Amino acid sequence: MWRCCILTSLSRQRRGLTKIEGQAKQIAKRLAQHSQSEQLRTEARYFHERMQYRDFESAHLPIGSGIVESGAKQAKQRLCALGMRWSRAGLENMLPLRAALMSGTFDQLWPRICPRL
């Protein structure tokens, strides 16, 4: 069941990517017909060169921002629990410690932060 849902979702994404690529080509074709659109052509080239979703998809890389947004939301929830209040300076000091703890690098980071302890 879940495999079918995933395959259906991937199929829809591929159709969507093909549609977006087709629309981008049509826009680029229209832009080529207008002499006052150099800036738009420059932007179209920029996106064509950098928005390589099909390549990312074939390399099994995520093409959405959901992973990053989820991580930011979780960090905020953990640092803003009931009764917690942080000053900007306190939060800026705590975030690297929290990241080191969660990534398993706290033991390497701590001697650099507090060499005398």
Radius of gyration: 23 Å
Class derived from helix and strand content: mainly alpha
**Helix-strand pattern, N to C?**
HHHHHH
Into how many domains do the coordinates divide? 2
Mean pLDDT: 76
Shape: elongated
Number of discrete helical segments: 6
Helical proportion, percent range: over 70%
Record field, number of beta strands: 0
| Assembly annotation | single chain
Give the end-to-end Cα distance, rounded to a whole number of Å.
55 Å
Q: Which stretches are poorly predicted, pLDDT < 50 over at least 5 residues?
A: none
Major sheet characteristics: none
Kindly estimate the percentage of residues that lie in beta strands according to DSSP: under 5%
Summarize the structure in short.
The chain has helices at residues 2-32, 38-50, 53-58, 66-79, 88-103, 106-113. The protein has 117 residues and is mostly helical.
Write the layout of secondary structure elements.
Elements: H1 2-32, H2 38-50, H3 53-58, H4 66-79, H5 88-103, H6 106-113
Helix pairs in contact: 1-2, 5-6
Properties at a glance:
117 residues; mainly alpha; 2 domains; 75% helix; elongated
Q: How would you describe what is shown here?
A:
- With 117 residues, the protein is mainly alpha-helical.
- It folds into 2 domains: 2-58; 66-113, no CATH class.
- The chain has 6 helices and no strands.
- The N and C termini lie far apart (55 Å).
